[in-house]
Design goal:
The chain has 278 residues and is mainly alpha-helical. The chain is built from 14 helices and no strands. α1 packs antiparallel against α14.
Length: 278
């Protein structure tokens, strides 16, 4: 009886997971089907689930309506520098908070964590005024430079928790052999922390690639726009070219999907191992 109950419970769990998966994939499917339809079919009632006819030409027309390649390279430039800055500086900060004993370390870290509770909207206007005083509005500096100064509190916290799972005896052996903290960081901590670093890199990539508010606030010239701002051009004041917007949106999210599937094993491992030691 127990074995039958376990089998029935497993079947029910798998059915529930399958149903939830379908619900999660439904918006993605809706975007794809809308990108292959005429405008009149997108909002037809009852809904048309399968495009007829299938219009692959929507993709070509959508990418020709905006300077897609220019927006792609603008976005890629911001993403590459942001990810590099986030991984490097957050790992350095996490190393300091986890492997170096200095006066007030834990108290400073606790105060730092409180910054996670401050809403982004609260700091938006003061931050904008600061960049404006520096004359860097309408440049990529506000979107890139912050990543090179700490890499974000959450990323520091994530890496710190992972670094603390690495035995400190390794640090002592390096010190005995004449090494220093940089040697420990580069030769011990970084190679052993590959999963957590990839997790931080994935978070940084997704944040920079999908960022809409940052470019909207700081970029004025259309030749500096990112992909997220480029998608906005398909929506006018009174009407929107939904079939083209959906086609362009589908192309924009492809890199995110590829990056996630390439790093999903490291992502799961990094999340699972983080926090095992407080």
């Amino acid at each position: 009886m127990k074995s039958k109950k376990k089998k029935v419970s497993k079947v029910l769990i798998y059915l529930a997971l399958a149903l939830l998966s379908v619900l999660c994939l439904l918006p993605f499917y809706w975007m794809i089907r809308s990108s292959l339809m005429d405008m009149s079919q997108i909002f037809a009632m009852p809904p048309i689930w399968i495009p007829n006819p299938i219009k692959f030409s929507n993709y070509k027309e959508a990418l020709n309506m905006i300077p897609f390649l220019q927006y792609f390279f603008n976005t890629a430039f911001i993403v590459v520098l942001s990810v590099a800055g986030t991984v490097i500086t957050s790992s350095l900060c996490a190393y300091s908070f986890s492997r170096i004993n200095w006066i007030g370390r834990d108290k400073v870290f606790g105060i730092l964590l409180t910054a996670m509770m401050i809403p982004f909207a609260v700091t938006l206007i003061p931050t904008f005024i600061g960049w404006q005083k520096l004359g860097m509005v309408n440049t990529y500096a506000p979107l890139i430079v912050p990543a090179w100064f700490g890499g974000g509190v959450f990323n520091v916290f994530l890496l710190r928790q992972f670094f603390m799972t690495i035995p400190k005896e390794l640090d002592e052996s390096v010190m005995v052999d004449g090494g220093n903290h940089f040697t420990i960081y580069s030769k011990i901590i970084m190679p052993l922390s590959k999963p957590s670093l990839i997790v931080v890199g994935l978070f940084a990539f997704m944040g920079a690639w999908n960022d809409f508010l940052g470019p909207l606030v700081y970029l004025n010239d259309s030749d500096k726009f990112t992909l997220s701002l480029g998608l906005m051009q398909f929506q006018g004041m009174y009407t929107a070219q939904w079939q083209y917007m959906m086609a362009a949106s589908a192309v924009v999210i492809i890199p995110s999907i590829i990056i996630f599937f390439l790093g999903q094993d490291y992502f799961i491992e990094g999340i699972a191992m983080t926090g095992m030691k407080g």
